[in-house]
């Protein structure tokens, strides 16, 4: 019976993923359909399906969507877009590099979901003025967000999930992951510069027009701007301090959104329309489907098989964790995959297989975070950007992203493997 359930869970996942990849159905519809099959066939009952949904992730997304929607009314993002264009002298390829670096830094010290929420509106405002496709910029920002998020504890959800059971703090992540994340960012940005440069040409007149624009003219409501920046600053400070104040990221984001609605006295109807509901339903459906894989033991058996092949050896197990995490995270989203892997590593520690689990935690973190760049559904930031792009009339196709993201993901994981072998997996 268990074998039949596992086979059914795998079939539901495979069919859903095929529909997402083929783009025959909207990804939200495909994911919700798969979740419905999971419940109707009894793989999970309704309570188990609800429990499988990571509401911390959904709450974080909703809160930031509301805050960004209100802040957008001030004209702040258009202001930043014009500023960025002026600094880059209107050169599109310089703007691409600049926005990528800014996204990476924001992702490291805020979180990658918040970073793309802030940067993507800037990108669309800028590319419209330059009459360029936003796709190269958005792909660059997705990759940069996941690389930057790798560097710190708060940068990417997998790191947040790993920190508590691993007993690792902010400084631990910064010291051990920031160096390799920086190297990967430099290499990736350089490659994207040469790949996209031929596509990024615009008329000299458009550059001159942008340079002639006064950025301050785009700031519409100074009072609302001050209110939005104050609440946004407090919210971001909450993210940085969340491990000390013992509040989940969702509570901080939703609290910030509520405070902003109160102080601005905004009718909530318009900000709530800014919520990317298809993205949220996609995540909810995906969590339920992956919950079925976990409940039927599919993910655990796969992970155990990979670890058993290594015999518990430090280097072999570390490499298996890195590559399996990277490849799997590209398929099933890194958040639910890490959730399945954490108890396995804890169990190995309890069994006394190794004295120090830290090298394997770093392998898991690097694989899950960098592996999120493999596909358009590999990480939360990817799906958010895809949803915003679709809303702005510039949808990113699964394969359009895959042909850039997957090879660069493999390269970044290879660099991480070298780093781990030199600094963490010796002995």
What general outline do the C-alpha atoms trace?
globular
Relative strand content: under 5%
Broad structural category? mainly alpha
Number of helical runs? 21
Mean pLDDT: 86
Radius of gyration: 21 Å
Instruction: Bin the helical content.
Output: over 70%
| Uncertain stretches of 5 or more adjacent residues | none
Largest sheet: none
Q: Please report the total strand number as a whole number.
A: 0
Distance between the termini: 43 Å
> Helix-strand pattern, N to C?
HHHHHHHHHHHHHHHHHHHHH
Structure description:
The structure is a single chain. Helix 4 packs parallel to helix 7 and helix 5 crosses helix 7 (112-130). The model has no long low-confidence stretch (mean pLDDT 86). By secondary structure, this protein is mainly α. 50% of the residues are buried. The radius of gyration is 21 Å and the shape is globular. The protein contains 21 helices and no strands.
Topology:
Blueprint: H1 2-22, H2 27-40, H3 46-52, H4 55-72, H5 76-87, H6 92-109, H7 112-130, H8 135-150, H9 157-166, H10 170-196, H11 204-212, H12 222-245, H13 249-264, H14 269-273, H15 277-295, H16 298-308, H17 314-332, H18 334-350, H19 358-371, H20 380-391, H21 398-423
Helix pairs in contact: 1-2, 1-15, 2-15, 3-15, 4-7, 4-13, 5-7, 6-7, 6-8, 6-10, 7-8, 7-20, 8-10, 8-19, 8-20, 9-18, 9-19, 10-21, 12-13, 16-18, 17-18, 17-19, 17-21, 18-19, 19-21
What brief labels describe this structure?
single chain, 427 residues
């Amino acid at each position: 019976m268990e074998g039949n359930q596992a086979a059914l869970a795998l079939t539901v996942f495979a069919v859903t993923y095929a529909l997402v990849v083929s783009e025959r159905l909207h990804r939200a519809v495909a994911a919700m359909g798969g979740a419905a099959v999971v419940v109707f066939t009894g793989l999970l009952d309704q309570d188990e399906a609800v429990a499988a949904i990571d509401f911390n992730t959904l709450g974080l997304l909703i809160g930031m969507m509301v805050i960004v929607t209100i802040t957008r009314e001030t004209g702040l993002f258009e202001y930043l877009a014009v500023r960025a264009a002026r600094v880059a002298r209107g050169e599109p390829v310089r703007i691409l590099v600049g926005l990528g670096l800014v996204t990476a830094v924001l992702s490291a010290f805020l979180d990658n979901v918040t970073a793309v929420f802030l940067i993507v509106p800037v990108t669309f405002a800028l590319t419209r003025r330059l009459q360029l496709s936003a796709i190269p910029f958005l792909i660059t920002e997705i990759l940069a967000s996941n690389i930057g998020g790798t560097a710190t504890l708060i940068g990417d959800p997998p790191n947040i999930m790993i920190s508590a059971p691993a007993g690792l703090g902010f400084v631990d992540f910064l010291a051990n992951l920031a160096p390799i994340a920086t190297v990967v960012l430099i290499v990736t940005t350089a490659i994207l510069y040469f790949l996209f440069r031929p596509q990024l040409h615009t008329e000299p007149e458009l550059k001159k027009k942008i340079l002639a624009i006064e950025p301050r003219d785009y700031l519409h409501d100074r009072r609302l701007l001050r209110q939005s920046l104050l609440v946004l600053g407090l919210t971001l400070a909450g993210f940085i301090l969340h491990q000390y104040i013992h509040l989940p990221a969702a509570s901080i984001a939703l609290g910030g959104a509520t405070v902003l609605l109160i102080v601005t006295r905004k009718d909530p109807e318009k900000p709530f329309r800014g919520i990317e509901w298809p993205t949220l339903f996609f995540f909810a459906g995906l969590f339920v489907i992956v919950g079925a894989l976990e409940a039927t033991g599919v993910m655990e058996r796969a992970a155990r098989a990979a670890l058993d092949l290594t015999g518990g050896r430090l280097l072999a197990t570390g490499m298996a964790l890195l590559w399996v995490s990277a490849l799997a995270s590209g398929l099933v989203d890194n958040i639910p995959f890490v959730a399945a892997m954490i108890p396995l590593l804890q169990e190995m520690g309890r069994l006394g297989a190794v004295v120090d689990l830290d090298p394997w935690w770093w392998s898991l973190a690097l694989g899950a975070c960098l592996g999120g760049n493999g596909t358009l559904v590999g990480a939360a930031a990817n799906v958010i950007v895809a949803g915003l792009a679709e809303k702005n009339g510039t949808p990113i196709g699964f394969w359009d992203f895959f042909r850039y993201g997957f090879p660069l993901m493999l390269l970044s994981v290879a660099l991480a493997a070298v780093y781990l072998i030199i600094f963490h997996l010796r002995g």
